From TrEMBL:
Keywords: SH3 domain, Signal. This is SH3 domain-containing protein. It holds the Pfam family SH3_2. It comes from Onychostoma macrolepis. PROSITE patterns: SH3.
Length: 134
């Protein structure tokens, strides 16, 4: 009898996990086929940029920007012709602790790159997970 209860609880846990995953997560349209990074995993910071004007995120792939914030830039999408240019990054600074660690895309024309940490870069293909909303 204990085994049946355990299996039932595991089954319930898995089903609830899939339902929650399905209601809060979505694959979104790819913004670009390639991105420029400091390394093959895009784990190192390319540069630092200062926000020039506010930006309100249109969906969960993007981050909100406030004028004056500093942003760590992790990747730069390589746009197809005619497409907008987006970078991915994370807000930096003690003043914005609630946003630190959240990585998302933002339009590059809303920031001024102030310091380049990595001059040598790699171009890698984007994946569906690069544009996953959770």
């Amino acid at each position: 009898m204990n085994m049946d209860k355990s299996l039932g609880l595991i089954f319930l846990w898995i089903c609830v996990g899939f339902v929650c995953f399905g209601t809060h997560a979505a694959l979104m349209e790819k913004l670009a086929d390639f991105k420029i990074c400091a390394d093959k995993d895009c784990s190192y910071v390319l540069s630092m940029a200062k926000v020039l004007e506010d930006y309100v995120a249109s969906d969960c792939r993007y981050i909100n920007l406030r004028r004056g914030q500093m942003i760590y830039v992790f990747s730069k999408l390589k746009p197809a012709e005619g497409a907008g240019v987006f970078w991915s990054g994370s807000v930096y600074g003690e003043r914005y602790v609630d946003q630190m660690g959240v990585i998302g895309y933002f339009p590059s024309n809303h920031v001024n790159e102030t310091h380049v940490f990595q001059k040598k870069t790699v171009e890698i293909p984007t994946t569906d997970m690069d544009f996953f909303c959770a």
